[in-house]
Amino acid sequence: MGKDKRHLLFQGKSLLEISVNRLRNIADEIIVVTGEEENLDNRDVRFVVDIEKDRGPMIGLVSGLSKIKNPYGIVTPVDCPLIPHEFLSYLKEKAVSYDLTVPRWKRGIEPLIAVYSKSIIPVMNEWVKKEEKLAPHLFIQKPDLKVRFIEEDEISNFGIPEILFLNINTEIDLRKAELLMGEKAML
Known about the structure:
Blueprint: E1 9-10, E2 13-14, H1 15-24, E3 30-34, E4 45-49, H2 57-65, E5 72-75, H3 85-94, E6 100-105, E7 108-109, E8 114-117, H4 121-130, H5 136-139, E9 147-150, H6 152-155, H7 161-164, H8 171-186
Parallel strand pairs: 3-4, 6-9
Antiparallel strand pairs: 1-2, 5-8, 6-7, 6-8
Helix pairs in contact: 2-4
């Protein structure tokens, strides 16, 4: 898109505001991981800078999880405004005693919409040191992790996965999300 997606407006609110508001009722703390140090004023939100610049979302996961106080962290990308907070609550509820709780559907897993246990930070740090490809979906396939997959039939209780996980990467995606929300309001 060529611009910081956090500040894109969707239904009159920034994507960052939507993401933070969605987490307010289900998380004790909210941490936003950024690539650059910023002074963003947002109540009850702590901003954390990536521990390494330009190495992808895995670094963001490690950066944020290493700063949480709770044993589990709910992870959501700012550019997926259609994920309902009820779905994130469900993920959180199912996360107990797992290293990772993550949606899995016909298009694959959604490692950036998940609940991570803080206990896996050492494993993540080792992965980050060894791997050049820091794709979270590869990390999740490690055999020593206790992973709870939220399968498509469970996901479907909260909506159509293609809509829930719609990622805003282009102006077309933004318009599509706005159309979908307009249709939902008419139902």
